[in-house]
Amino acid sequence: MNLQVKTKNHACSCPGADLVFWILSSAFVSWGFFFPGTTRVLRGVVLLAGILTSIVVISSTLYMFWSTKNGCDFHFLGPFLFTSLLVLIAFALIQVFMPMGKLGSTVYKGLAPILFSAFIAEGTDNLIKRFNYDEYIWAAISLYLDILNLFLALLRR
């Protein structure tokens, strides 16, 4: 059984992809069994963050497919998102050295999920329009990191 990525004129066969898929899948499933105590304490928070992340990813993906069909382009978001991420990092560093209390923490916790949701939308747009069949691994890694950042931003208390 080989995984194949097919486009209109090309097919890329990856003979070792099945083995890698099963190794990674078993690793992620086994982590759930080895570390049950970490999620037992905050089970409700983790579940809520997972549900919210799933809703954002599914709705963003559906919207990107719809907007691609209608000719919309979201490539212009890249520089704005990068600048916003730098501002968020600077804000976090300022919080470390000069704590701003609950207000600063609330602002950070409110802006981070919005920013990472926009990163997911832009990453999905890039995945659909800009990556070709040889770059699907980088596209998947990029989108995975966007989803992980959103999940971690939602877990912050």
TrEMBL record:
Location in the cell: Membrane
Topology term for the membrane:
Multi-pass membrane protein
What UniProt keywords are attached to this protein's entry? Membrane, Transmembrane, Transmembrane helix
What are the annotated GO cellular component locations?
membrane
The record's principal subcellular location, in a coarse class, is membrane
Does the entry feature the keyword Transmembrane helix, yes or no? Answer: yes
Coiled coil feature spans: none
Does the record carry Heme as a key word? no
Q: Which residues form the signal peptide?
A: none
Regions that span the bilayer: 20-38, 45-68, 74-94, 136-155
UniProt lists the family membership as follows:
Belongs to the BI1 family.
Q: What is this protein called?
A: BI1-like protein
The protein's organism comes out as Rhododendron simsii
Lineage of source species: Eukaryota, Viridiplantae, Streptophyta, Embryophyta, Tracheophyta
